[in-house]
Amino acid sequence: METVINQPTMKLNGASLTVERISQEVLRRLATMQPLETAVPQEPTAVAVNDHLELEVPIGISVRHVHLCPEHVEILFGKGHDLTVYNELYQKGYYAAREQVMVVGRKRAIEKVRVLGPTRPYSQVELSQTDALIIGMKLPVATDGADPACQPITLVGPEGAVTLPGGGGGGAFIARRHIHISDKTAVSLGVAHGDLLDLRIDGPRPTTLHGILVRVKAGWLTEVHLDTDEGNAVGIRNGQTGTLIIQKR
Ligand SMILES: [Zn+2]
Protein backbone atom coordinates (compact mmCIF):
# COMPACT_ATOMS: atom_id res chain seq x y z
CA MET A 1 0.00 0.00 0.00
CA GLU A 2 1.19 3.50 -0.83
CA THR A 3 2.13 5.72 2.09
CA VAL A 4 0.20 8.97 2.12
CA ILE A 5 1.98 11.81 3.87
CA ASN A 6 -0.68 13.83 5.60
CA GLN A 7 0.01 17.43 4.61
CA PRO A 8 -2.24 20.32 5.61
CA THR A 9 -4.37 21.39 2.64
CA MET A 10 -6.21 24.60 1.73
CA LYS A 11 -8.65 25.59 -0.97
CA LEU A 12 -7.36 27.88 -3.71
CA ASN A 13 -9.87 28.79 -6.43
CA GLY A 14 -11.82 25.65 -5.62
CA ALA A 15 -8.83 23.28 -5.83
CA SER A 16 -7.57 21.54 -2.74
CA LEU A 17 -3.83 22.16 -2.48
CA THR A 18 -1.13 21.67 0.09
CA VAL A 19 0.25 24.77 1.77
CA GLU A 20 3.57 24.19 0.04
CA ARG A 21 1.87 24.00 -3.35
CA ILE A 22 -0.08 27.20 -2.60
CA SER A 23 3.12 29.06 -1.67
CA GLN A 24 4.69 27.98 -4.95
CA GLU A 25 1.60 29.06 -6.88
CA VAL A 26 1.49 32.48 -5.17
CA LEU A 27 5.18 33.06 -5.86
CA ARG A 28 4.71 32.02 -9.50
CA ARG A 29 1.84 34.47 -9.93
CA LEU A 30 3.76 37.30 -8.24
CA ALA A 31 6.75 36.66 -10.53
CA THR A 32 4.59 36.96 -13.66
CA MET A 33 2.82 40.16 -12.52
CA GLN A 34 3.51 43.27 -14.55
CA PRO A 35 5.48 45.94 -12.69
CA LEU A 36 3.32 48.89 -11.60
CA GLU A 37 3.33 51.85 -13.95
CA THR A 38 5.70 54.52 -12.75
CA ALA A 39 3.43 57.04 -11.06
CA VAL A 40 3.29 60.04 -13.35
CA PRO A 41 0.29 62.02 -12.08
CA GLN A 42 -2.10 62.59 -14.96
CA GLU A 43 -4.66 65.35 -14.81
CA PRO A 44 -8.17 63.84 -14.92
CA THR A 45 -10.72 64.83 -17.57
CA ALA A 46 -14.27 65.89 -16.71
CA VAL A 47 -17.20 63.98 -18.19
CA ALA A 48 -20.63 65.57 -18.83
CA VAL A 49 -23.41 63.59 -17.11
CA ASN A 50 -26.95 64.94 -17.65
CA ASP A 51 -26.93 68.42 -16.13
CA HIS A 52 -23.51 68.33 -14.45
CA LEU A 53 -19.83 67.46 -14.88
CA GLU A 54 -18.16 64.53 -13.15
CA LEU A 55 -14.44 64.32 -12.55
CA GLU A 56 -12.59 61.38 -11.02
CA VAL A 57 -10.04 62.84 -8.60
CA PRO A 58 -7.32 61.38 -6.38
CA ILE A 59 -7.87 61.74 -2.64
CA GLY A 60 -5.07 62.42 -0.18
CA ILE A 61 -5.79 61.59 3.45
CA SER A 62 -4.08 64.17 5.68
CA VAL A 63 -2.81 62.75 8.93
CA ARG A 64 -2.47 65.21 11.85
CA HIS A 65 0.36 67.63 11.11
CA VAL A 66 1.93 70.99 11.88
CA HIS A 67 3.03 73.88 9.67
CA LEU A 68 5.68 76.19 11.15
CA CYS A 69 6.92 79.72 10.54
CA PRO A 70 10.75 80.06 10.27
CA GLU A 71 10.95 81.68 13.74
CA HIS A 72 9.19 78.73 15.39
CA VAL A 73 11.43 76.23 13.56
CA GLU A 74 14.40 77.88 15.29
CA ILE A 75 12.72 77.94 18.73
CA LEU A 76 11.69 74.27 18.50
CA PHE A 77 14.75 72.81 16.74
CA GLY A 78 17.57 75.27 17.49
CA LYS A 79 19.09 78.45 16.10
CA GLY A 80 19.82 78.28 12.36
CA HIS A 81 17.84 75.05 11.91
CA ASP A 82 16.08 74.43 8.58
CA LEU A 83 13.40 71.82 7.91
CA THR A 84 14.72 68.72 6.14
CA VAL A 85 12.80 66.60 3.60
CA TYR A 86 11.53 63.21 4.81
CA ASN A 87 9.01 62.54 2.01
CA GLU A 88 7.93 64.53 -1.04
CA LEU A 89 4.17 65.07 -1.13
CA TYR A 90 1.90 64.71 -4.17
CA GLN A 91 1.91 68.49 -4.72
CA LYS A 92 5.25 69.64 -6.14
CA GLY A 93 7.39 71.61 -3.70
CA TYR A 94 5.60 70.35 -0.57
CA TYR A 95 7.07 67.75 1.75
CA ALA A 96 6.77 65.91 5.02
CA ALA A 97 9.78 66.99 7.07
CA ARG A 98 11.96 64.78 9.26
CA GLU A 99 11.12 67.14 12.11
CA GLN A 100 8.38 66.15 14.54
CA VAL A 101 6.91 67.94 17.57
CA MET A 102 4.77 67.10 20.56
CA VAL A 103 1.35 68.78 20.51
CA VAL A 104 0.14 69.55 24.03
CA GLY A 105 -3.61 69.85 24.66
CA ARG A 106 -5.59 70.44 27.86
CA LYS A 107 -5.78 66.82 29.00
CA ARG A 108 -3.07 65.01 27.06
CA ALA A 109 -0.34 65.41 24.47
CA ILE A 110 0.28 63.70 21.15
CA GLU A 111 3.93 62.91 20.44
CA LYS A 112 5.69 62.78 17.07
CA VAL A 113 3.35 64.98 15.06
CA ARG A 114 4.91 65.48 11.62
CA VAL A 115 5.94 68.95 10.44
CA LEU A 116 5.09 69.70 6.80
CA GLY A 117 7.29 71.99 4.72
CA PRO A 118 8.08 74.48 3.41
CA THR A 119 7.69 77.00 6.24
CA ARG A 120 4.72 79.38 6.24
CA PRO A 121 4.05 82.89 7.56
CA TYR A 122 1.96 81.43 10.43
CA SER A 123 2.36 78.25 12.44
CA GLN A 124 -0.72 76.05 12.64
CA VAL A 125 -1.75 72.62 13.91
CA GLU A 126 -4.22 70.49 11.90
CA LEU A 127 -5.85 67.70 13.90
CA SER A 128 -8.77 65.36 13.36
CA GLN A 129 -11.76 65.62 15.67
CA THR A 130 -10.68 62.30 17.21
CA ASP A 131 -7.24 63.82 17.99
CA ALA A 132 -8.91 66.90 19.47
CA LEU A 133 -11.11 64.78 21.78
CA ILE A 134 -8.10 62.69 22.88
CA ILE A 135 -6.13 65.76 23.96
CA GLY A 136 -9.19 67.42 25.51
CA MET A 137 -9.80 70.27 23.08
CA LYS A 138 -12.79 71.56 21.21
CA LEU A 139 -11.60 72.70 17.78
CA PRO A 140 -13.35 74.51 14.94
CA VAL A 141 -13.42 73.36 11.33
CA ALA A 142 -11.35 76.00 9.52
CA THR A 143 -9.36 76.59 6.35
CA ASP A 144 -6.15 77.87 7.95
CA GLY A 145 -4.56 79.25 11.09
CA ALA A 146 -5.71 82.78 10.25
CA ASP A 147 -9.30 81.82 11.14
CA PRO A 148 -10.28 83.68 14.36
CA ALA A 149 -11.87 80.49 15.76
CA CYS A 150 -8.50 78.67 15.89
CA GLN A 151 -7.52 77.61 19.42
CA PRO A 152 -4.32 78.25 21.38
CA ILE A 153 -2.03 75.20 21.55
CA THR A 154 1.51 74.40 22.70
CA LEU A 155 4.21 72.69 20.64
CA VAL A 156 7.30 71.10 22.15
CA GLY A 157 10.42 70.32 20.13
CA PRO A 158 13.88 69.02 21.10
CA GLU A 159 15.21 72.55 21.72
CA GLY A 160 12.23 74.51 23.00
CA ALA A 161 8.50 75.12 23.13
CA VAL A 162 6.07 77.63 21.64
CA THR A 163 2.45 78.39 22.37
CA LEU A 164 0.41 79.44 19.36
CA PRO A 165 -2.05 82.17 20.40
CA GLY A 166 -5.10 81.04 18.38
CA GLY A 167 -7.70 83.65 17.47
CA GLY A 168 -6.31 84.25 13.98
CA GLY A 169 -2.65 84.45 14.95
CA GLY A 170 -1.98 80.77 14.26
CA GLY A 171 -3.41 77.90 16.28
CA ALA A 172 -5.14 74.52 16.20
CA PHE A 173 -8.11 73.55 14.06
CA ILE A 174 -9.74 70.73 12.10
CA ALA A 175 -9.03 71.21 8.38
CA ARG A 176 -12.00 71.91 6.14
CA ARG A 177 -12.25 69.30 3.38
CA HIS A 178 -10.88 70.85 0.20
CA ILE A 179 -9.62 70.31 -3.33
CA HIS A 180 -6.40 71.68 -4.79
CA ILE A 181 -6.60 72.62 -8.47
CA SER A 182 -4.55 74.74 -10.86
CA ASP A 183 -5.84 78.01 -12.31
CA LYS A 184 -6.14 76.29 -15.72
CA THR A 185 -8.21 73.41 -14.32
CA ALA A 186 -10.44 75.90 -12.49
CA VAL A 187 -11.20 77.64 -15.78
CA SER A 188 -11.83 74.38 -17.63
CA LEU A 189 -14.23 73.19 -14.93
CA GLY A 190 -15.90 76.59 -14.53
CA VAL A 191 -15.16 76.79 -10.80
CA ALA A 192 -13.52 79.49 -8.71
CA HIS A 193 -11.43 79.70 -5.53
CA GLY A 194 -13.82 79.46 -2.57
CA ASP A 195 -16.55 77.45 -4.35
CA LEU A 196 -18.01 74.45 -2.51
CA LEU A 197 -18.41 71.18 -4.45
CA ASP A 198 -19.71 67.66 -3.80
CA LEU A 199 -17.55 64.53 -3.83
CA ARG A 200 -19.14 61.13 -4.36
CA ILE A 201 -17.41 58.14 -2.80
CA ASP A 202 -18.32 54.73 -4.22
CA GLY A 203 -17.42 51.48 -2.53
CA PRO A 204 -18.48 49.60 0.57
CA ARG A 205 -19.50 52.82 2.36
CA PRO A 206 -21.02 54.91 -0.43
CA THR A 207 -21.28 58.55 0.57
CA THR A 208 -21.47 62.03 -0.91
CA LEU A 209 -19.40 64.60 0.93
CA HIS A 210 -20.65 68.18 0.55
CA GLY A 211 -18.76 71.42 0.99
CA ILE A 212 -15.44 70.51 -0.66
CA LEU A 213 -13.73 73.92 -0.68
CA VAL A 214 -12.02 74.80 -3.97
CA ARG A 215 -8.47 76.13 -3.54
CA VAL A 216 -6.76 77.39 -6.71
CA LYS A 217 -3.05 77.97 -7.34
CA ALA A 218 -1.02 77.84 -10.55
CA GLY A 219 0.86 74.56 -10.81
CA TRP A 220 -1.23 72.58 -8.35
CA LEU A 221 -2.24 69.04 -9.30
CA THR A 222 -5.89 68.14 -8.87
CA GLU A 223 -6.21 66.47 -5.46
CA VAL A 224 -8.86 66.32 -2.72
CA HIS A 225 -7.68 66.46 0.90
CA LEU A 226 -9.71 64.78 3.62
CA ASP A 227 -8.56 64.04 7.16
CA THR A 228 -8.22 60.61 8.77
CA ASP A 229 -11.67 60.75 10.42
CA GLU A 230 -13.32 61.52 7.07
CA GLY A 231 -11.31 58.86 5.22
CA ASN A 232 -12.14 56.22 7.82
CA ALA A 233 -15.82 57.19 7.90
CA VAL A 234 -16.20 56.67 4.15
CA GLY A 235 -13.89 53.64 4.00
CA ILE A 236 -11.11 55.01 1.80
CA ARG A 237 -7.35 55.11 2.08
CA ASN A 238 -4.78 57.60 0.84
CA GLY A 239 -4.46 57.56 -2.98
CA GLN A 240 -7.93 56.20 -3.77
CA THR A 241 -10.26 58.28 -5.91
CA GLY A 242 -13.66 59.89 -5.66
CA THR A 243 -15.98 61.60 -8.14
CA LEU A 244 -16.27 65.36 -8.04
CA ILE A 245 -19.73 66.64 -8.98
CA ILE A 246 -19.78 70.07 -10.62
CA GLN A 247 -23.22 71.58 -11.26
CA LYS A 248 -23.44 73.66 -14.43
CA ARG A 249 -24.36 77.29 -13.95
ZN1 LIG B 1 -4.64 70.40 1.13
Kindly summarize this structure in a few lines.
The chain has helices at residues 19-32, 70-77, 129-134, 183-189, 228-233; strands spanning 9-12, 15-18, 47-49, 52-62, 65-67, 85-88, 95-104, 109-117, 124-126, 141-142, 153-156, 161-164, 172-175, 178-181, 196-201, 207-216, 223-227, 241-247.
Class by alpha and beta content: alpha+beta
- Low-confidence stretches at least 5 residues in length (pLDDT < 50)? none
Helix content: 10-25%
The main β sheet shows up as:
9 strands, mixed
* End-to-end CA span: 82 Å
Spatial shape: globular
Give the total of beta strands. Answer: 18
Characterise the protein shown here.
The chain has 249 residues and is of the alpha+beta class. The chain has two domains: 47-60 and 177-247, Barwin-like endoglucanases (Beta Barrel), CATH 2.40.40; 64-175, no CATH class. 16% of the residues lie in helices and 39% in strands. It has five helices and 18 strands. The chain has helices at residues 19-32, 70-77, 129-134, 183-189, 228-233; strands at 9-12, 15-18, 47-49, 52-62, 65-67, 85-88, 95-104, 109-117, 124-126, 141-142, 153-156, 161-164, 172-175, 178-181, 196-201, 207-216, 223-227, 241-247. The strands form three sheets. Strands 5, 6, 7, 8, 9, 10, 11, 12 and 13 form a nine-stranded mixed sheet that branches. It has a six-stranded mixed beta barrel with strand order 4-17-14-16-15-18. Strands 1-2 form a two-stranded antiparallel sheet. A hairpin with a 4-residue loop joins β7 (95-104) and β8. It is globular. It starts with 8 loop residues before the first strand and ends with a strand. The structure holds zinc ion. Zinc ion binds at residues 178, 180, 225.
